Structure formats: structure tokens, C-alpha cells
């Protein structure tokens, strides 16, 4: 098992869903940041291969344009790449000057690959010196709830990241699951019954049931 200060599980440098997200303290474009200080907020930590690169620039613009929506969900965005803070600052200023977009969230400078190693962001099949496009969803209690990895060549779809945050928060609030292609406001999935008695009872509870094990309801 992995615990808060560990970065390897059975020799593989990946954090584990449902366990505390590996803590870190890092230099960012907004000053020093310690992950554990952000408890009480949800965190979307995402890595990118390098500053001043085309796909990364489009992603940071997209994240910045959606920042208000993330903030409304009590989400702190945090970017990261294996670049210096000076490179980050120059890139942020360039995006503001050339594209007219201000990047409002901190970007971690991870030259020693400390955070990247803890979160399994370095995939040698892609690059040994650049982070892949990883996304980590950390809840307000500091627990890692979901993660998505993309290759260097393809940018992320920000609406899916927002949708997944909403799905996770809906699960926590209502004790339900969300089906494939779920969007906020749509029916959710009632947890599967654990006993025969539960299976019988649920058929009389007014749910929309396809069968005893698959029932939907409105929130």
C-alpha cells in the first residue's frame, strides 16, 4: 500500500486511488505551495511537457478560461512541468501579452522531478525528461479520487475534467454512482444491492429499474 509520504508502490511510482494523495511542498509562480495546506478544497493537479510549446499553451488557455467554473466547484487548479519558475513566469507573461489570457492558477517548478516522480508523471516511453499530460483529482480531504493520463501529442478536453469533478462531488453528496456519459442533472445509478432483501426492496422503492441490479433515480 502507498501512504502519504511514499512515492512507490511495488516499485511503480504511481499514487493509489482512495488513498491520501502524496504530499509535497514546491516552488510555484504564486510562491511556495504545500498540498496538505489545501485541505478543504478540491484540487486538480495537472502536468504538461514543457513551457512555450503549442499544445501546452492551448491547454493552459483553456484551463484559464474555465477557472471560474472550477472555482465555483471549490477546485484549486495547479499546473506543473519540469521547468524552472523563471521559465514559467516568462511563459505566463508571454501568454498574457500574445494571447490576451491571464493564467490565474499556480504552476509548480519541478526541476528535480520530486512531484513528478511521486505522481508517476514521467513515462520513459514518452520522455525521460518531460512529464506526460497527467490529471489528478484530489478531494477536500486530501484523498486521490481519480487520475487520467494523456500522451505528449494530444491535448486534454477540459469539459470532461469539469464533468468528472461534478460526478465525484455528486457521488459524495448523494451516495450514488454516475452512469456512462452522465451529465449533471441526469439520472444517477442507485448502488447495487448487497443482499437478497435489498434486491427485493429496491424494486418497490419507485426507482427506474432495468433489472434488480441496475436502477436509476433523479436527484
UniProtKB/TrEMBL annotation:
SUPFAM superfamilies (alphabetical): Thioredoxin-like (SSF52833)
Keywords, in A-Z order: Antioxidant, Cytoplasm, Disulfide bond, Oxidoreductase, Peroxidase, Redox-active center
A GO biological process held by the record: cell redox homeostasis
Self-association state and partner proteins as the record states: Homodecamer. Pentamer of dimers that assemble into a ring structure.
Further information: The active site is a conserved redox-active cysteine residue, the peroxidatic cysteine (C(P)), which makes the nucleophilic attack on the peroxide substrate. The peroxide oxidizes the C(P)-SH to cysteine sulfenic acid (C(P)-SOH), which then reacts with another cysteine residue, the resolving cysteine (C(R)), to form a disulfide bridge. The disulfide is subsequently reduced by an appropriate electron donor to complete the catalytic cycle.
Family, similarity comment: Belongs to the peroxiredoxin family. AhpC/Prx1 subfamily.
Protein's recorded name: Peroxiredoxin
Organism encoding this protein: Methanospirillum hungatei JF-1 (strain ATCC 27890 / DSM 864 / NBRC 100397 / JF-1)
Amino acid at each position: 500500500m502507498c501512504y502519504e509520504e511514499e512515492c512507490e508502490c511495488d516499485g511503480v511510482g504511481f499514487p493509489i486511488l482512495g488513498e491520501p494523495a502524496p504530499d509535497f511542498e514546491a516552488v510555484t509562480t504564486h510562491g511556495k505551495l504545500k498540498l496538505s495546506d489545501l485541505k478543504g478544497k478540491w484540487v486538480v493537479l495537472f502536468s504538461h511537457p514543457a513551457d512555450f510549446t503549442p499544445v501546452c499553451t492551448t491547454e493552459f488557455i483553456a484551463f484559464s478560461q474555465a477557472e471560474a467554473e472550477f472555482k465555483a466547484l471549490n477546485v484549486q487548479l495547479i499546473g506543473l512541468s519540469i521547468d524552472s519558475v523563471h521559465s514559467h513566469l516568462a511563459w505566463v507573461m508571454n501568454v498574457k501579452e500574445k494571447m490576451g489570457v491571464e493564467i490565474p492558477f499556480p504552476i509548480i517548478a519541478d526541476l528535480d522531478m520530486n512531484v513528478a516522480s511521486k505522481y508517476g508523471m514521467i513515462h520513459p516511453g514518452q520522455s525521460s525528461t518531460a512529464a506526460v499530460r497527467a490529471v489528478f483529482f484530489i478531494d477536500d480531504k486530501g484523498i486521490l479520487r481519480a487520475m487520467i493520463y494523456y500522451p505528449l501529442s494530444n491535448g486534454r478536453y477540459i469539459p470532461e475534467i469539469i464533468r468528472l469533478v461534478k460526478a465525484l462531488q455528486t457521488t459524495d453528496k448523494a451516495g450514488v454512482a454516475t452512469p456512462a456519459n452522465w451529465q449533471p442533472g441526469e439520472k444517477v445509478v442507485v448502488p447495487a444491492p448487497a443482499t437478497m432483501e435489498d434486491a427485493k426492496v429496491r424494486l418497490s422503492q419507485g426507482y427506474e429499474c432495468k433489472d434488480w441490479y441496475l436502477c436509476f433515480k433523479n436527484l
